[in-house]
Amino acid sequence: MTKILVAGGAGYIGAHTVKELRKKGYGVVVFDNLSTGRREFVRETELVVGDLEDKDEVRNVFRAHSISAVIHFASLIQVGESYLHPQRYYTQNLTSSLNLLEIMLEAKVKSFIFSSSAAVYGVPRKLPIPEEHALSPINPYGYTKLFVEQILRDYDRAYGLKFISLRYFNASGADPDGEMGECHDPETHLIPNILLAALGKKDVLEIFGTSFPTPDGTAIRDYIHVTDLAEAHVLALSRLMESPQSEFVNLGTNVGYSVREVVAKAEKITGRKVPVRERSNREGDVPVLLASKDKAERLLGWRVHRSDIETIIATAWNWHRKESNGPINGDPMMERKSGTS
Asked: How many whole angstroms separate alpha carbon 157 and alpha carbon 138?
């Protein structure tokens, strides 16, 4: 049986994608160093613990399995950290991708789905952002994604490696079945931080930037439910294997919510007041980011089913409450949970 190799498949988006691949009948092998991924997210799928920076470890996976395509999620993803430690980001994100592509070519595997980012666009000149928008990242993280995309262009031209690069941001929500959710250490994403504050696991929610040129002064982002994103990766894989043609595809909803709007929605859904502290803008943040979904709908047949902000927050809230250990502020009678952190 041929299998799909999912690099970073124990992580947040990767694990949700593995679940959707299995639903569609694909055989899957997960390759993950578990630096940020969680073993329990992989469940019954085969997991190989290894690091993409070690070519021998990657090579052994291809020798042990009949791999027909690769989906690549494994990378460092924190924009702020990429400013502080650019060497780490350029080294790890580029080396891991180059090693993976090298071994793919050795094994004559030429179908590749890349987890890219709308960060390749930088400050948008048009909203929602179309795929033909100028590429001008404003942070090292975005440049690492752009550089890998250029590598993919060259590998297609020179070696016939076909790819679909999926550009998205603000993956959010949790598995509707409650099996997986978003957890990073440190946690830098808005919705989980709101919910951690609501649960009393954070003292306060920090809002970075209240003077953006938006209606309420806070940044506006396009939030996509992680299961909708996972389904898009499976659709992209199917498209690539049936019709090998390299593409760049945005994944977005064409709809944005400000930070204050998301906080208000979360307070309504959770029934809890979220304590807030306002901070100055972070370097590299832009006022509004919305990704067009037109090409994804046309090319992949992709439709968003869970990406309304209420469903995103509700599924994330259910998962975070399940994961919470110990009494929760405001719920003194709540039983102690046994989930992992």
From this structure: 27
Mean pLDDT of 131-158: 97
pLDDT in tens, 98-133: 999 999 999 999 999 999 999 999 999 999 999 999
pLDDT higher than 80, residue 338: no
Residues belonging to the active site: 141
Write out pLDDT tens, residues 151-169.
999 999 999 999 999 999 8
Q: Which domains does the chain have, with CATH numbers?
A: 3-169+224-250 (3.40.50.720), 190-221+254-323 (3.90.25.10)
Under a CB-based contact definition with an 8 Å cutoff, are residues 173 and 319 in contact?
no
- Give the pLDDT confidence score for residue 44 in this predicted structure: 87
pTM of the model: 0.92
